[in-house]
């Protein structure tokens, strides 16, 4: 198995043999001088601690916040502390799914939920209003991404995409996923994937940068798409650090995606981004330029932010903007239709935590962003997480589901009087 | 040798852990190999004393779910409830911390390893005393050969961490460096 170690070594050796110009070409960037890249130390490892300033007691207190590893009982889940605007209701939809992450929906009423730190994909069945959580598949490796189309569930693990056909008939049959695509690096850092099916009927997923802030080879830092059978792989966007959420604007069909900014630049910079792809092959600037106007202190030399596509919105410092969906239902008031809900998992790399909410991104008619505001809050209490939202999903009745990897739970957000809001 | 034998015998006797047994009843089987005073005398078996609760819970979970494959722990953890995992983690955290081995210390090697610790920032997550925190384990005065095994496992990907941290951290560390790091960490005061 080729781990990230081997990959890192290969790149280092390639560097030594070919020099910086070759690397610059490899990284699909103009062959500008890369002083930092001349030393293998500039490449992976990708530990989140890389980049932390030395001898700084405030910085020394910051580290990724580990979420509870075991299932949390339904009556211990703090759904009552979550706050939504007037008229909206939040209820617990299902629980007992440690590290619940991305979601996908089957028209049979089943919600599929991936996980990043555990080895499972869960299925929440819903028969006559009675919901039940099943373990659909175990033994997967970081199965963060799930997508559903025409009876088939697609699963994105760390370094492969697989499928389960006729999945609705196999909920309790321990189905074995069939691999359709595995031409992927095996790096742990930013190796987990979000998965979604576009209007072109292709599977979209990212290959993140293999570390906090690294100059990497041509196989990282990008968004790819493949046909549903795994063929026809194509890179459609470059310069992406790590997106864990994207969706298509129902009005202009452009792909919008969140991207998480680097750690350790400062408390307030850079912001996470919301990007918009208007044509295939655009470069969004990472690791040379952050948030459209902040050149990187190591890699920015010799690059101009104006050479890259700027974000359409800033999502907050270290906010961990993850899953996002355009709201396409009819249950919420009309002002929410075709606007974006973004799950902000919440920061770790900041003394005063930021995020831990569902943000509402309002758009102008031309698809540009009008505003970003908190919509559902309460996951963050007194600078501590009591929950962390990961993904959002439209339900056919117009309600919206939110996954929470801290509590291993899924919530349902509805609007209106009890009768309208009932499922 | 005698200890290893006792450990193996107890394991055989306990090969099919009974669900009816309480955590306290099962504990002697664990401690036969891992050491009753928190310090393992058995080669290849880690000391557990004063281990971080969070970390122990996660490791037991990973053994139970076979996310970490290591005989005989997968068998031992089979059928444990979530509450059992928490109870074991609580008890283990209260055992005394392991002590470094007696005997002469190679000061030059310790100094060499200290540089590696700084370079690789081991003391960031594991804390300057190597007592660990949350899901980052106590490694101070762990058995040297076990530390080598763990680091090699992370390096060749035969051991998966709950998260990606260690796989990333060990990527640039060479095998001779692993030996030096283990020597040092097994003896930190």
What this model shows, in words?
The complex is a heterodimer of chains A (423) and B (189). Chain A is mainly β and 423 residues long. Chain A folds into two domains: 30 residues, no CATH class; 317 residues, Neuraminidase, CATH 2.120.10. Chain A has three helices and 29 strands. Chain A has a five-stranded mixed beta sheet with strand order 10-11-12-13-17, with no helix packed on it. Chain A has a four-stranded antiparallel beta sheet with strand order 1-29-28-27. Chain A is globular and about 60 Å long. The relative contact order of chain A is 0.14. Chain B has two domains: 93 residues, Cytochrome Bc1 Complex, Chain D, domain 2; 79 residues, Cytochrome c-like domain (Cytochrome Bc1 Complex, Chain D, domain 2). Chain B has ten helices and no strands. The mean pLDDT of chain B is 90. Classes of the chains: A mainly beta (423), B mainly alpha (189).
Strand-and-helix sequence of chain B, N→C?
Answer: HHHHHHHHHH
Radius of gyration of chain A: 21 Å
Distance between the termini of chain A: 47 Å
Poorly predicted sequence stretches spanning 5 or more consecutive residues of chain B: none
Q: What level of helicity do the residues of chain B show?
A: 40-55%
CATH superfamily of the largest domain in chain B: Cytochrome c-like domain
Spans of chain A with pLDDT under 50 lasting ≥5 residues? 1-44
Q: In what range is the share of β-strand residues of chain A? A: 25-35%
**Strand segment count of chain A:** 29
What count of domains describes the coordinates of chain A?
2
Q: What is the CA-CA span between the terminal residues of chain B?
A: 28 Å
What value does the average pLDDT of chain A take? 89
Rg of Cα set of chain B:
16 Å
What's the helix count of chain A?
Answer: 3
Helix content of chain A: under 10%
CATH architecture of the largest domain in chain A: 6 Propeller
Structural class of chain B: mainly alpha
């Amino acid at each position: 198995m080729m781990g990230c170690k081997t990959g890192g070594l290969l790149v280092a050796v390639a560097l030594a043999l070919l020099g910086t110009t070759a690397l610059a070409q490899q990284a699909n960037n103009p062959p500008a001088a890369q002083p930092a890249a001349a030393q293998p130390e500039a490449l992976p490892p990708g530990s989140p601690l890389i980049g932390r300033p030395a001898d700084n007691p405030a910085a020394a207190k910051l580290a990724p916040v580990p979420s509870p590893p075991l299932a949390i009982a339904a009556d211990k889940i703090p759904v009552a502390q979550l706050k939504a605007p007037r008229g909206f209701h939040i209820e617990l939809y299902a629980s007992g799914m440690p590290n619940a992450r991305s979601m996908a929906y089957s028209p049979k009423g089943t919600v599929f939920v991936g996980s990043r730190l555990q080895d499972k994909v869960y299925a929440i069945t819903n028969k006559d209003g009675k919901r039940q959580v099943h373990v659909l598949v175990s033994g997967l490796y970081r199965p963060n991404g799930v997508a559903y189309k025409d009876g088939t569930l697609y699963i994105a693990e760390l370094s492969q995409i697989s499928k389960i056909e006729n999945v609705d008939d196999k909920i309790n049959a321990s189905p074995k996923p069939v691999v359709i695509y595995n031409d992927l690096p095996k790096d742990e850092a930013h190796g987990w994937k979000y998965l979604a099916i576009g209007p072109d009927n292709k599977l979209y997923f990212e290959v993140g940068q293999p570390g906090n802030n690294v100059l990497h080879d041509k196989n990282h830092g990008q968004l790819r798409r493949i046909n549903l059978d795994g063929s026809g792989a194509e890179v459609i966007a470059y310069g992406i650090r790590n997106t864990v959420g994207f969706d298509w604007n129902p009005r202009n069909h452009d792909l919008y995606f969140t991207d998480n900014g680097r750690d350790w630049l400062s408390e307030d910079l850079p912001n996470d981004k919301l990007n918009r792809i208007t044509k295939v092959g655009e470069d969004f600037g990472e690791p040379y330029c952050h948030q459209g106007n902040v050149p990187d202190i190591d890699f920015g030399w010799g690059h101009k932010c104006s050479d890259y596509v700027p974000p359409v919105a800033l999502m907050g410092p270290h906010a961990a903007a993850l899953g996002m969906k355009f709201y396409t239902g009819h249950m919420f008031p009309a002002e929410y239709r075709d606007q974006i809900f973004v799950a902000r998992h919440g920061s770790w790399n900041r003394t005063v935590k930021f995020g831990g909410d569902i943000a509402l991104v309002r758009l102008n008619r031309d698809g540009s962003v009008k505003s970003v505001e908190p919509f559902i809050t309460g996951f963050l209490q007194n600078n501590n997480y009591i929950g962390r939202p990961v993904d959002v999903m439209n339900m056919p009745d117009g309600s919206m589901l939110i996954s929470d990897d801290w509590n291993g739970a899924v919530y349902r957000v509805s609007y209106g009087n009890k009768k309208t809001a009932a499922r | 040798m005698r200890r290893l034998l006792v450990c193996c015998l107890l394991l055989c006797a306990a090969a099919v852990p009974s669900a009816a047994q309480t955590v306290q009843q099962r504990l002697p089987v664990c401690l036969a190999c891992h050491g009753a005073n928190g310090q393992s005398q058995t080669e290849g078996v880690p000391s557990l004393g004063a281990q971080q609760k969070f970390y122990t819970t996660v490791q037991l979970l990973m053994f139970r779910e076979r996310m970490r494959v290591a005989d005989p722990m997968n068998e031992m953890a089979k059928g444990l409830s979530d509450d059992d995992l928490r109870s074991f983690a609580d008890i283990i955290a209260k055992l005394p911390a392991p002590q470094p081995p007696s005997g002469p210390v190679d000061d030059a090697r310790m100094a060499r390893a200290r540089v590696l610790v700084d370079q690789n920032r081991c003391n960031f997550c594991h804390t300057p005393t190597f007592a660990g925190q949350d899901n980052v384990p106590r490694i101070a005065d762990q058995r040297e050969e076990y530390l080598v095994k763990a680091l090699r496992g992370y390096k060749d990907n035969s051991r998966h961490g709950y998260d990606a941290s260690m796989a990333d951290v060990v990527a640039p560390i060479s095998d001779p460096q692993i030996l030096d790091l283990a020597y040092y960490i097994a003896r930190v005061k």
